[in-house]
Amino acid sequence: MRAPRPYVPESIDPTEVSPSGPYRAYKTAGLILLAGAWVLLGLVGHGPWKFDDATSLGLAQEMVKRGDVVVPYLAGEPYLLRPPLLPALSALSIVALSPPLEPHNAARVVVGLVLALMLVFAALASREFSGRAYRWLPVLILVGSLGFWDRSHAMSGELGVTLAVAIALYGFALALRRPIAGGLWLGVGIGVAFLSRGLQAPAWLALTMALLPFAGDAWRSRAYVVTAAVALVAACALSLPWVFALAARDPALFDLWWSSEQLIEYVGFLPGADPANPLYQLRNLPWFAWPVLPLVIWTLWTRGRGFNGGLAQPGIQVPGILALVMFVNLIVAPEPKVISALPLLVPLALIGALEVDSLKRGFSAFLDWFGILTFGLLAVVVWLLWIDARVNGMSSRIAVLFQDTEIGFQPTFHLGTILLAIFLTALWVVLVRPARRSNRRAVLNWAAGVTLLWGLYSTIWLPYLDSRRSYRTMIESAAMHLLTPGCVASRNLGEPHRALFQYYAGLVTERLETHADSRCPLLLVQYGRQAGAAPTLAGYDVVWEGRRRGDETERFVLYKRPTR
Predict the structure, then answer these.
(1) Which of 45, 51, 339, 383 sits at 20 to 30 Å (Cα–Cα) from 232?
(2) Do 507 and 497 touch, CB atoms closer than 8 A?
(3) How far is CA 377 from the centre of its chain?
(4) What radius of gyration, in Å, describes the C-alpha atoms of the chain?
(5) 444-499 pLDDT, tens digit each
(6) Smallest Cα–Cα separation from 353: which of 301, 309, 296?
(7) What is d(CA 101, CA 99) in angstroms, rounded to the nearest whole number?
(8) How far apart are CA 335 and CA 341, in angstroms?
(9) 148 near 343, Cβ under 8 Å?
(10) 116 vs 32: CA distance, rounded Å
(11) Which helix (H) or strand (E) is 556 found in, with range?
């Protein structure tokens, strides 16, 4: 049987984007500027938005208030659905940076740190697996991934897991030449994963460790045993102190946390588990993982035919097995959410980067010109809509397009914000200027286009978006009807809403779900989409109702017992 002929890509020029050739310093600075803009934009300048952003802020605020990071609290009640790493870091950031920053902006600085570290470790992992020329490609792919849009700029446990996966992948890669150092980083990744979201992500990494020896001789060695042992020790050293501290503080709280980590919480086909919906992730992954998913398919197609080393390469095996383990768990998980797939993008980016250079000219040209035309036209539309809204107020047709029930919004004019938006637009024009095209250039242009739109979203349109997504005005309106001091009960009030009522109004309600015998004179109820007047409740009068501006999906009603 003849061996596969070597595959000669149509366009290989690793120096085009990876800064290892001429003008290396300028290329490096440009790529750092692009990644830095994507990381930093959107961190400050807006209030906490639901879901995870508001919940994490509530946890961090309670930690600052109580001086305790062992037992997370949300609106006065223990909250043990996940360990407290990100809220604890956000609490430290609030203490250090507020003032001058508002607490929610100070807390979100941690998001920027986590995103930056995630990109750094993805680059380090790619360099270890595939060489120096490939260290920037996964960074650009991640920046350009649609799934990372605003979800990556919110305080969430999934973001911590995404960082943990990048660290662990670097540990796997480094273990091939430095087993002890690789094991340390792998253990750090497992520890960060546990402290961010609980046992699910550590189980992904542990299962990957167990499966790798079946993938090749490199993982069936004494060195790999050393790596696994060191990783186990490092992971336990990071994870167990919080577990022991929680058990020592209150065994009942430990039991409450442990009950949320049972297998039925992660596998929806087990008896007693909530039902799984395998089609949910399958429907959403094609857009969520664009453009990384087509790049992964091309890599597997190319390597599967034996070209460029085939599939039996660590740079394919490790992220491939990890991605497969994660994906299988995600499709069988109960109550699936899109944000749960956020960590999956990291191993996919490492795989997709491997065969960017061998992409068929037609696909790379499509990605390049489709990105330039799409982002260019969208940027023009975004600017024109902003100018029109600024001059004339938002028209009814645009309000309908944005699913906004209120018209006439006029964005504020802030010189610094406008100049930043103009700079980002000009920078994008310079980056995509007519030049010698290459496959890597197409990836760079796509990432630059995503960063441009994210920049416009986070600068000139941020006041409008904040007015739509923030609860500040609504909660401040409700606070005018609250008794001071007083007792307020609540029903069906979501976790982010409880956190925001405490943050903006200092209100901690007695939830009827846990205090069924509450005798509070006021009752705050959250309803879904409703038309007409506020529902009446026997024994109560309606004293206030409200919702977020332009949002018909939620409705909040404050009731009061009539005085006798």
Answers:
(1) 339
(2) no
(3) 27
(4) 25
(5) 999 999 999 999 999 999 998 898 889 999 999 999 888 665 789 999 999 999 99
(6) 296
(7) 5
(8) 13
(9) no
(10) 10
(11) strand 555-560
